[in-house]
Amino acid sequence: MLLSTFELLVKPQLPPGLPNVPPEFENLSRTVIQGYFLTLANTINSDVLVSLVFTAVTPELDLDKTITFLDTGGDNIIGDLSPFNPNKKRFTIPINANDTVLFILQPDIIRNNGELINEKNFEVRGYVEIFVSALSNLPEVTLLVTPEHRGTFFKDLTANPPQLDQIAYSLPTATGSSLFKLESSPL
Q1: 25 within some domain
Q2: pLDDT tens digits, residue range 138-174?
Q3: pTM
Q4: What is the domain count for the chain?
């Protein structure tokens, strides 16, 4: 079932090389690091296994430039997406009965000596689907889902202290609701 869109960024707010931009306007531009955050609440009395499928085509989602975290009890467990089909990547999440988890997909700004931060030219967007795995052995599952983007803006990370600003905003779901009733799927 379609869930939402997503966009990952490590880019300047004001694209470099724009014509007729006064030099002083370049001081307004900061770099943004933006990730996709998804809170999932299992509202039934059984454990479930949920698959998220991320589709991105132009460009595709590069597994060497992203990282995932799953927060199930205050601990961020590092993970990775796995290839699923061309242009599709999957992440499987176990959710305990009546429990809530936070899934995070973001640019991996640490990998390769901070390559993404240094280049400031990473952006990928696409859409997310959500499925309940047949391994859950449940005909239907009811979940509350809240997708959002969160971003951090900075000008100079070497400044002491660095000046950081943050933004978070909810994304609309494909159904227009946070309540998802999902039937079991072979995924």
Answers
A1: no
A2: 889 999 999 999 999 998 888 888 888 999 999 999 9
A3: 0.93
A4: 1
